[in-house]
Amino acid sequence: MLPKFKSSLLHKCPRCLKGDMFPDRNPYHLRNTARMHSHCPVCGLNYEPEPGYFYGAMYVSYAFTVAISVAVFLLYYVLMPQQGVLAFLVLLSIVLALLSPYTFRTSRAIWLNFFVRYQPSQQHESSDSQNQAGSLK
Questions:
Q1: What share of the chain is helix, strand, coil (3-state, %, to 5)?
Q2: Phi/psi of residue 121, each to 5°?
Q3: 95-123 residue pLDDT tens
Q4: Is residue 27 within 8 Å of residue 105, measured between CB atoms?
Q5: Residue 65 resides in a domain
Q6: How far apart are CA 79 and CA 94, in angstroms?
Q7: Helices and strands, number each (H, E), in the chain
Q8: Global pTM?
Q9: Which residues share a beta bridge with 20?
Q10: Angle of helix 57-79 relative to helix 85-115, nearest 10 degrees?
Q11: For 26-71, how does the pLDDT look when each residue is reduced to its tens digit (9 = 90+)?
Q12: Number of structural domains the chain divides into
């Protein structure tokens, strides 16, 4: 379970935990936030096995948004109980806007982790077959 958690938070390949899912590791470079590798650069896992594969990640993102909203509400209620609803909505909007690039990528990583098993030996098998293919040329 720990490898899946690590893969999801660090946006690594769920099969080998070595390859990056996104070419630009910083989710806040907004031009590259949604740009993803088509395959893992280390083990060759296809990140999008079918068109529309990541539509399910929207449900994961929705769950993140609800959890973040509840956490912000609880902190707001404890730390600033005298403020009004408008101040809460402004604060919540700012927090959600700031976290949305990371939430987007993490939702995709979690969705991919639902369907792909961690196989630590996969990286070695893939690199060995690539080395053999390279030596044949």
A1: 60, 5, 35
A2: -80, -15
A3: 999 999 999 999 999 999 998 888 877 54
A4: yes
A5: yes
A6: 17
A7: 4, 0
A8: 0.79
A9: 12
A10: 150
A11: 999 999 889 999 999 998 899 988 888 999 999 999 999 999 999 9
A12: 1
User: Is 52 exposed, middle or buried, given 0-12, 13-18 or 19+ CB atoms closer than 10 A?
Assistant: exposed
Whether residue 137 is contained in a domain is answered as no
Please, where are the H alpha helices in 11-84? 57-79
Residue 134 lies in a domain: no
Domain ranges, residue 106: 2-121
In a domain, 18, yes or no: yes
Q: How far apart are CA 136 and CA 29, in angstroms?
A: 40
Cβ neighbours of 20 (radius 10 Å): 16
Count of other CB atoms within 10 angstroms of residue 126: 20
Q: CA 130, CA 105: separation in Å to the nearest integer?
A: 29
